[in-house]
Amino acid sequence: MNIKKTEMYTFQSEVKQLLHLMIHSLYSNKEIFLRELISNASDAIDKLRFAAISSSDLYENENDLNIQISVNKAQKTLIISDNGIGMTRQETIDNLGTIAKSGTKAFINSLKEQTNKKNELIGEFGVGFYSSFIVSDKVSVRTRFAGHDPTEGTLWESSGKGEYHVTNITKKNRGTEITLFLKKEEEEFLETWRIKNIVSKYSDHITVPVNIQNYDEEKKTYFWEQINKAKALWTLKKSSITHDEYKDFYKHLTNDQNNPLVWSHNHVEGNLEYISLLYIPEKAAWDIWNRDNKHGLKLYVKRVYIMDNSQEFLPNYLRFVRGLIDSNNLPLNVSREILQGNAITHNLKKALTKRSLNMLDKLSRDSQEKYQIFWNQFGIVLKEGPAEDHDNLKKISNLLRFACSQNNSSEQTLSLQKYVDNMIEKQEKIYYITADSYISAKNSPHLELFNKKNINVLLLSDRIDEWMMNYLIEFEGKKFQSISKEDSSIQTFSEEKKIKNTDLPKNIIEFLKKVKKHLGNQVKDVRITYRLTETPCVVLSDSNEMTTQMAKLFSAAGQSVPELKYIFEINPEHALIKKICSIQNETQFKEWITLLLEQALLSEKGSLENPHQFIARMNNLLLQ
Prior knowledge:
CATH class of the largest domain: Alpha Beta
CATH topology of the largest domain: Heat Shock Protein 90
Region (B): 337-552
Radius of gyration: 33 Å
GO cellular component, one term: cytoplasm
Structural class: alpha+beta
Low-confidence stretches: 100-104, 115-126
Subunit structure: Homodimer.
Number of strands: 22
Strand order of the largest sheet: 1-6-5-4-7-3-2-8-9
Shape: elongated
Mean pLDDT: 87
CATH superfamily of the largest domain: Histidine kinase-like ATPase, C-terminal domain
Strand content: 15-25%
Main location: cytoplasm
Protein name: Chaperone protein HtpG
């Protein structure tokens, strides 16, 4: 026996804020509420199909899956119903009273800040149900979970003003029925032609029929009319699908209102039989850097929906790729646990990774402008590739883009192939420098020789760059070389020979002895260099030691870092060095040498352990 039990609940605080914004701030493109409700209904039907694989009784003798829309102009109500999985009482409270998804506050802030794109954010953040309140004074939801007794239905009602009511009801059919009590000014959504246009615009590729109730004036009877194509677009021949249909399907699949940059649709037969439809978005998702970022492909097995965000088919560095895979080889009862370590999954991942990289390679060759849009959005993510995917290192390397010393722009546009093609005669290595910022890299004293010799240097200033360069060893047979580390090839370009003490002027030999004695074990070595043109001195990392940027990464991650000891190189041609050579006062001499070392360390590291002492020393020497 079903006891009618009504309880009042208060919305989660984030939902209250959200509803307030929905009701009072969203006026443009109100029609998206119908797109969201149909999308939710489609998901509920997909979930039923999946659950029924192991429990066919969930169909309750009704296999004709569909979404129905009906209007009542007299009562000013619009009803959207489905015969999908439905919800239990607790699920109704959990799903409609709270927003469990992380990032809700970020969404609300985005909603406040973005005037023109508010409606686009709704689908992106998965809070589409609440868009009902844009057009409704009141919303009621009647639902029953598939397989449960008809007396175990639930009625959820709210006017969107802070609370909602939940009542036990009897509901004969499984699934969910949403009734919108429309505001007086929103009665356009009671017109059949208006609903048809919206469904055609947003929901044509929903894989289940969307039917609208019509009235036959002659026969005086109601009938249902299907108003969407209800065909799985990916199963159609590519030649029969227009570009606009691919774009519309992408928007339906991802809730992204931007068009994709490019896509790849493939039917594969043989040992592996599958269909893949992969898209490269135009804009990065708001949470692409979050640890709980929901990425991955939508998985179907033999046209049956299995799961969203299946991460097993693409490596993490390609997490921006959107789309789906429909496999004939996997079992229908596949789970995330079965997918992991599965040989078929492994082979599909290899194939889809290769296809994704080929799609990007083609984009880079077909349209530099579009590829630059991609790189500006996702380049940092792709830079994870060399560490993660050694098998595809060459393909990934070809897709990388860099800023460089010969371009007066921080924009990363230079490919490695173009760099190698333009190397000067006798150049055997690809030179680069890592720094905290583009400005810091561009103005590094390490560049002086390279600018003089017209040798291009890659300027790397993203946090991931230093890590990436540990795995990016060579390209086209040319090894990578950091110009902030000791290397014999740099000596070759500086026209230096191995300088011996006996080759130096006597005053320079004495100068070096005094500097080494004063600095002691503060540095690894003190040397003369002729590769500086405007700077008196510089510090270098030993070729076998950790770089400054890598030490910063370890430190930022909370890991202990071994003490770095630099090679201190001095430019004997610089006027300041010549002046210091002539100083007889030992105290003054030591102060100048310490100041020069601190200057070089500041230029290299961007900070000093005791900046106040450095400033005091500099001020004191200026006064003298």
